[in-house]
Amino acid sequence: xxxxxxxxxxxxxxxxxxxxxxAPVNLYEPIGYIMGxxxxxxxxxxxxxxxxxxxxNYEEAMDAALAVExxxxxxLVHDDIMxxxxxxxxxxxxxxxxxxxxxxxxxxxxxxxxxxYFENYPADLFKSLIEVFSKTAIEVCEGQQYDMDFxxxxxxxxxxYLKMITYKTAVLVAAAMKMGAIIAKASKxxxxxxxxxxxxxxxxxxxxxxYLDAFGxxxxxxxxxxxxxxxxxxxxxxxxxxxxxNTEEIxxxxxxxxxxxxxxxxxxxxxxxxFVHSGSADVTRNEIKKFTRRAFEILESLEAPDNKxxxxxxxxxxxxxxxx
Length: 324
Known about the structure:
With about 325 residues, this protein is an all-alpha fold. The protein has one domain: Orthogonal Bundle (Farnesyl Diphosphate Synthase). It has helices spanning about 5-20, 25-35, 40-55, 60-85, 95, 100-115, 125-150, 160-185, 190-215, 220, 225-230, 235-245, 245-255, 265-280, 280-300, 305-320, and strands spanning about 85-90, 90. A two-stranded antiparallel ribbon has the order 1-2. Strand 1 (about 85-90) and strand 2 form a beta hairpin. Helix 4 (about 60-85) runs parallel beside helix 7. The longest helix has 29 residues, at about 125-150. The chain is globular, with a radius of gyration of 20 Å. The two termini are about 25 Å apart.
């Protein structure tokens, strides 16, 4: 049976062969830079695995996988500009290494490139793939807008937050898998099932990311622990602490999330203590398990050989037990 690392290696080789720096260098070099500084390659791997699990040839899914990964990195380049983020994957963000205008323009080219990769498919597949991809691209942008709106809103609910992370994170995971199913020529029911598997896995993945942002090991996490707390992000942890905490905890949390101190270490520590004491940390861990369990239930009912489905189960378990 092929394993996750096999698909990662094959995709990385394909990506390296496709990426070239041409004139104007200041437009294309940033693209090679952001695509080359690592990342889990989760979404393209899921496209390849889904194609293989459902009886297709994973090599035929390479361009769709590439489209997904280029689009994902395009969104990161523009998100980093909006967040004024200095680091991505431990390296300077594109707009910090070059400038904001370069980040915007290089990101624009990446978005266009992501659509071009679908041109390598026959007309019937092209139409089906583009329909999924375009709908997803809009939803990702809507998710980003919700995320920005929440930063200035005091009325954010848990359902609001789950909708936001579904659009901002989960739909692209789900679409990556559905496109693999389309390329494998799976039935409509199977396409929908693997999409729903991806939605639940994507939500669990983002909740895990939120949890690790507060409680991850700084040596393993790859970015600053407590970054969401510093930026006053109303994550699931925050919203549940507001819901479950006592009056003193709620007031302190609201006060801490209204300031950005010069030295945030004490703020991070206090907020984490409230997350733990209020029960929010435990609830978040349970919610991660719940969405993972839902994903596995869908996987169990999927019409595919059990020995092939094991790779998706392995990937899901790895994502939920990760420290980065």
